[in-house]
Design goal:
Blueprint lengths: L6 H8 L5 H9 L2 H15 L14 H21 L7 H9 L7 H14 L2 H12 L5 E4 L15 E5 L4 E5 L7 E2 L10 E10 L2 E11 L12 E5 L12 E5 L2 E4 L9 E2 L5 E2 L9 H31 L18 H36 L6 H29 L1 H5 L5 H8 L9 H20 L29 H28 L4 H7 L1 H23 L7 H21 L1 H5 L6 H18 L3 H6 L5 H4 L10 H10 L10 H17 L1
Parallel strand pairs: 1-5, 2-5
Antiparallel strand pairs: 2-3, 3-9, 4-8, 5-6, 7-8, 10-11
Bound molecules: ligand LSKO443Y and flavin-adenine dinucleotide.
Ligand LSKO443Y binds next to α5, α6, α8, α10 and α13.
Cofactor: FAD
Protein name: Acyl-coenzyme A oxidase
Main location: other
């Protein structure tokens, strides 16, 4: 087995214009954090207790069991190693790689719901147990018949003042809870979203803490039906489940009562906003923006390294086969997603900081930031997961045939990450939520109100510049202005369409539906403007080393120009940009790709994914792809024997029979 680095990759690294460690530091927030990250990753990746056969060779049941064992072990080790809460994600992502785990919902939603929705007494009762994994919970909201439409949930929690209990019931087949991660086999508790009824009156969806399995033998409690929903497109390592209740009684104190309350006599105490009950989803949407940047970065790392190792065809007669990354068409497939990965990585950081600031404010009782936080996280969740989806698939196809093999790591990455466009709010629906906020804000600005935050730009609509003006299409100020103008114009046009539909006699819901394609387009443009502006702003950081600010500026330019050329109609339609501008943009893209080409490997190395996390034969740091492809294939279960048992069962009699008939 070759121990040295593939010469092509070695040369790529020698020829890059900057030290990737500097960008790694920039991406992770400083050298100390990078040091900590590497220590924790190395600790996890070199721990023999976490080693197991490749998941691709396992059944769904084996994947679940392997991951359950591994994650439980991880919980124990995190405790023993006393890893700081803030650093745990480094350790965790090294242990689980690109796979979801059966405790993901406990950590990612059950605990956050207790933090965000439980009263102090309820925290005192449950948090210690939940934080220490003495109980395991999930977030059970979606039903077979309703995921998007939360107000349409059918599960009921009916208050019985005589016993001071809620009666939990699943009235129909479509009311079965369906999908919650870790529900199928792992969890013994859940946060249940159910329609609250008091004295026959409905108060909408509320969160309840419900025990579903015995703490003694893990059997479903009386009245509870629970199980796994079966194999999925990906997520084999997680037991997504179904759940139904037959008049199960829980104490009044089990409704999470930080905001809404039900008094013993059945008096309902209203929350400051009914949408506070949706808080956990907002947090996870913000997380998905971070995650989308990371998965795209992984896919691009694999495809870029492999494209430097892979040599194919003849560019010049008689010359050696070139590295496929030297084909400009290959660069055009990968570099826009390399740039997008950086863009979303940085957007994710901003989104998390907006989330932290706003949620601190909200938990102190000031809910004024809630609409902006919801609109921003919904739009960015949708945009980032859509781009990551398309980008992962583009990277897979850019790896040719080997991209289709599980050895590449790309099919599994895709299968596990693509539901990010669906869960935590289906993307179109999320964009329409952002559009709703944009329409409201736009109307406020028409009434002379000054707007703040991500919609501040809607206050001052820019005029279309005079014809004949030339622009420098590489100037980030010019590019941000163009995105801003496009977003403001598309918001305006969607608002006009909505108004026209109303004036033509449609009621508000029908008008909204008729205008919804334009509304989604406006929300996309708004979110894309946010991403481009955020990238450009991060480059103005005066502490940024000049050796890396050049290459990051190129990535930012490429990201903005590629989006502009792909959506050129939006920029041209009202004459804001001219055909000359767009032609210039296309030429700049080619020039930028040529400049980025020598730095491509260093730019993906800077994401700093160790091989154990990438889990890809094609994306290996040392580039020794071919020998490891063969080694990987040999490990396949079908190769355990030279002659498979099915030969004796089926093939042998079949062949013998055919031969006998000759
Ligand atoms: C160590 C690390 C450990 C763990 C890892 C942690 C994280 C990992 C990161 C990522 C991976 C994450 C998870 C793992 C995988 C899968 C988990 C998946 C879980 C789930 O999917 S849970 C179920 C999610 N379900 C949804 O998202 C449902 C979507 N639907 C809705 O949200 C609502 O129904 C919808 C569509 C918003 C409509 O709501 P409603 O009908 O009530 O509202 P209206 O449309 O009438 O609007 C009324 C009003 O309210 C505003 N609004 C709506 N939602 C919110 C909100 N959330 N916050 C604030 N405001 C909201 C809306 O805009 C309207 O305002 P207006 O009247 O216009 O002023
Ligand atoms: C892997 C995975 C894990 C999950 N984990 C959990 C979990 O832990 N807990 C949990 O509770 N749920 C979970 N879910 C469920 C998930 O949250 C829902 O599937 C999601 O919210 C989408 O809802 P839906 O399935 O009802 O889609 P639907 O709403 O039925 O979407 C179908 C189509 O209808 C369109 N549509 C729906 N409403 C509108 C509208 N108002 N306007 C325009 N178009 C519309 C959508 O755009 C989409 O194209 C998970 C799902 C998956 C795939």
């Amino acid at each position: 087995m070759a121990a040295t680095v593939n010469p092509d990759l070695k040369k790529e690294r020698e020829n890059s214009s900057f030290d990737p460690n500097k960008i790694t530091s920039f991406l992770y927030g400083g050298p100390e954090i990078v040091k900590k990250k590497r220590e924790l990753e190395s600790l996890a990746l070199n721990d023999p207790d976490y080693q197991h056969e490749d998941l691709n060779f396992m059944s769904q049941e084996q994947q679940y069991e392997t991951f359950l064992k591994k994650t439980l072990l991880m919980v124990t080790k995190v405790r023993e190693l006393k890893i700081d809460v803030a650093d745990r994600h480094f350790y965790r992502s090294a242990v689980i790689g690109t796979n979801p785990d059966p405790l993901g919902l406990h950590v990612g939603m059950f605990l956050p719901t207790l933090y965000g929705q439980a009263s102090q007494e309820q925290k005192d009762k449950w948090l210690k147990m939940a934080e220490n994994f003495a109980i395991i919970g999930t977030y059970a909201q979606t039903e077979m018949g309703h995921g998007t439409f939360l107000r349409g949930l059918e599960t009921t929690a009916t208050y019985d003042p005589t016993t001071q209990e809620f009666v939990i019931n699943t009235p129909t087949i479509t009311a079965y809870k369906w999908w919650p991660g870790g529900l199928g086999k792992t969890s013994n508790y859940c946060v249940l979203m159910a329609q609250l009824y008091i004295h026959g009156k409905s108060y909408g969806p509320h969160p309840f803490m419900v025990q579903i399995r015995s703490l003694q033998d893990h059997k479903p409690l009386p009245g509870v039906t629970v199980g796994d929903i079966g194999p999925k497109f990906g997520y084999g390592s997680v037991d997504n489940g179904f759940l139904a209740f037959n008049n199960v009684r829980i104490p009044r104190e089990n409704m999470l009562m930080k905001y809404s309350k039900v008094e013993p006599d059945g008096t309902y105490v209203k929350p400051p906003s009914t949408k506070l009950a949706y808080g956990t989803m907002v947090q996870v949407r913000a997380n998905i923006v971070v995650n989308s940047g990371r998965v795209l970065a992984k896919a691009v790392t694999i495809a870029t390294r492999y494209s430097c190792v892979r040599r194919q065809s003849e560019m010049k007669p008689g010359h050696p086969e070139p590295q496929v990354l030297d084909y400009v068409t290959q660069q055009y497939k990968l570099f826009p997603y390399l740039a997008a990965a950086y863009a979303f990585w940085l957007t994710g950081q901003t989104m998390m900081s907006v989330y932290t600031t706003s949620s601190n404010q909200i938990s102190k009782g000031d809910i004024s930031a809630l609409p902006e936080l919801h609109a921003l996280s919904a739009g960015l969740k949708a945009l980032s997961s859509w781009v990551a989806n398309v980008g992962m698939e583009e990277c897979r196809m850019a790896c040719g045939g080997h991209g289709y093999s599980h050895a590449s790591g790309l099919p599994r990455l895709y299968a596990n990450m693509t539901p990010g466009a669906t869960y935590e709010g289906e993307n179109t629906v999320m964009m329409l939520q952002t559009a709703r906020y944009l329409m409201k804000s736009y109307n406020q600005s028409l009434q002379g109100e000054k707007l703040a935050g991500s919609v501040a730009y809607l206050s001052g609509v820019q005029p279309v510049p005079a014809a004949g003006r030339t622009r420098n299409m590489l100037d980030l100020g010019v590019l941000c202005d163009a995105y801003r103008h496009r977003a403001a114009r598309l918001v305006h046009e969607a608002a006009v369409q909505l108004r026209n539909e109303r004036q033509a006699g449609k009621d508000q819901p029908d008008a909204w539906n008729a205008a919804s394609v334009d509304l989604v387009k406006a929300a996309m443009a708004h979110s894309q403007y946010f991403v481009v502006k955020n990238f450009a702003e991060r480059l103005t950081d005066s502490t940024l080393d000049s050796s890396i600010s050049d290459v990051l500026t190129r990535l930012c330019q490429l990201h903005a120009l590629h989006g502009l050329v792909t959506n050129s109609g939006d920029f041209l339609e009202d004459g804001y940009l001219t055909g000359t501008d767009v032609r210039q943009a296309r030429r700049h893209i080619n020039a930028l790709m040529a400049k980025l080409r020598p730095d491509a490997v260093a730019l993906v190395d800077a994401f700093d994914f160790p091989d154990g996390i990438l889990n890809s034969v094609l994306g290996r740091y040392d580039g020794n792809v071919y020998e490891h492809l063969l080694e990987w294939a040999k490990a396949s279960p079908l190769n355990k024997t030279d002659v498979h048992q099915s030969y004796h069962k089926y093939l042998k009699p079949f062949l013998e029979d055919n031969r006998a008939k000759l």
